[in-house]
Model the fold of this input.
Amino acid sequence: MGLAPEARGARRGVTPLGARIAALIADTGPITVADYMALCLGDPEHGYYMTREPFGSAGDFVTAPEVSQVFGELVGLWAVATWLAMGSPPSFILAELGPGRGTLMADLLRAARLRPAFGAAARVHLVETSPRLRTLQEATLGGTAVAWHGDVASLPDGPAIIVANEFFDALPVRQYVRTDGGWAERMVGLDTAGRLAFGLRPVSEPPASPLPSSERARARGGDLASAILEVSPAATGIISRLAGRLARDGGALLAIDYGHEGPAFGDTLQAMRGHAFADPLAEPGVADLTAHVDFAALAEAARAAGATPRPLLGQGEFLARLGIAARAERLAAGKDAATVAAIGAAVRRLTAPDAMGTLFKVLAVSQSGLALPAFDGDA
Done:
């Protein structure tokens, strides 16, 4: 099938979904890393987000809203301030992409009660493909009226405030390698024993490469041989659509995720199971698959669609600008020593450079001329 072997792994693909993927590859040939990720995460019968409980200490990873209620509350205060900066529209779309168990939205709405008119104007929309997670979100949000969507394309028109926490990292990526013989795309195929394995398929050049011209020249010259370039057409396509609607209808988007500030070479595809790294090919549908977000590519796609991206902030700096220290102090007031220590530990986890403070970054995108809190001076 034109696939050169790259690696082999023992007992790879020994799940029901793994067997189906192996059969697909045997029948039609190797698939891209993006197609493999999409199947592992979103297969209706065996996909990770369709069948697993990924969140919390009993799951495979913990997201910022699960670390502390302070995170969602501060995002809520940011949303209220953004709505005020928009001129307090009497009706607007409050959307979250990939809302998990609904924890962030619940905390956001609770904090937003400080401004009742915000809650009265908000029309809550959640973009979620998993029926199981929709059920959890409905339970978490109680009596809140919610509309669910399978993708961003069906979000209604109008001014919007859109939040995406750890959403873009789960979107499929394609991987390209500069070999001694030229460019090749990294694929998922089968080894001689019929197990899932990475391999390479020659291509002329990566499509729509986000690299600056200087980096492309280095790659063509062989300086970066064997390095992997990741691109995510799914991520740039989604933010382009959302940015276009913000430019047209008004509003802002807040994307919080782990990743890098600019185009870079490197293999960031990773699998998580039980809060530990795993082989991405070992247990399709059982382990979470993610890749670091290329924020430069997202910002450029937003700019090309007519919206205004802001310079990135680290999550720690973003939360500091929103007053996380003061909020934590109020939350800890009058509590016992153990609770105070737990609040302090959670704040450190969210903000410290050696925890989530710098690895996680915050990208804000808005209509032109809108002053955003935490990003634009004293807004």
Q: What stands out?
A: The CA atoms of residues 252 and 366 lie 4 Å apart. The longest helix spans residues 69-85. The domain at 64-171+233-366 is CATH 3.40.50.150 (Rossmann fold). The chain has 14 helices and 18 strands.
